[in-house]
Amino acid sequence: MTEQQIDLRDPRVLHRAAEHLTERYAGVFFPELVQRCLIDCHTDLARRARLQSYLMPMALHDAADRLRALAQDKGSRRERVCQVLFVEDHDTGPAAVAAALLATYAGIAVVTRSAGTTPGTTLDPAAVQVLAGLGVDPAAVAPKPLTDSLLAAADWVIVFGAPDVGPLESGTRCQHWPVDGAPGTDPGPGFVADLQSRVQALWLEITAGTATGPAAQLP
């Protein structure tokens, strides 16, 4: 994508451009603040720069400097936001929907993500429909690979089915949730309702701090 094609007013473009900084400061700053910082830096540079060819890398550099200074000045790293990671085999269905549901309930109080041990290429049609119903643009949601950094950052890891997520950080809470139906098929309203109930219960557990150990599991 050339500099002339970059339009940070497009949410999908902004999400991709700020993704690295968002991950770096996950739990320190909300994604919206990181994106706002990048927009401001890009706008400032566009006004002053004689050459417009390298605005984005320069804006990313300036945004990183601002965020680093802000984190140091406010001691933000001592005020971490709870992070929840939903994991399934391909990150094409329930995990993405659950992450969106929790974001709906928790707002900016929680950082939610989804990932797959062997990520697919596109979301399942049923997941697209549910996300659209939640007001989430499915085009802005794509299957993502499970990485060590995502696991290390997570306070909660919710595993759908039985994928091997590997060892977790000490103190990370883990729950295993069932997955009904074959991948790519419509699980039906019953599964969606059950998923909503589980996500609501998880949110209550997070806010109440009722879990007693790192491996608490739902039945």
Automatic annotation (TrEMBL):
Signal peptide extent: none
Protein known as: Low molecular weight phosphatase family protein
Domain Phosphotyrosine protein phosphatase I: 82-205
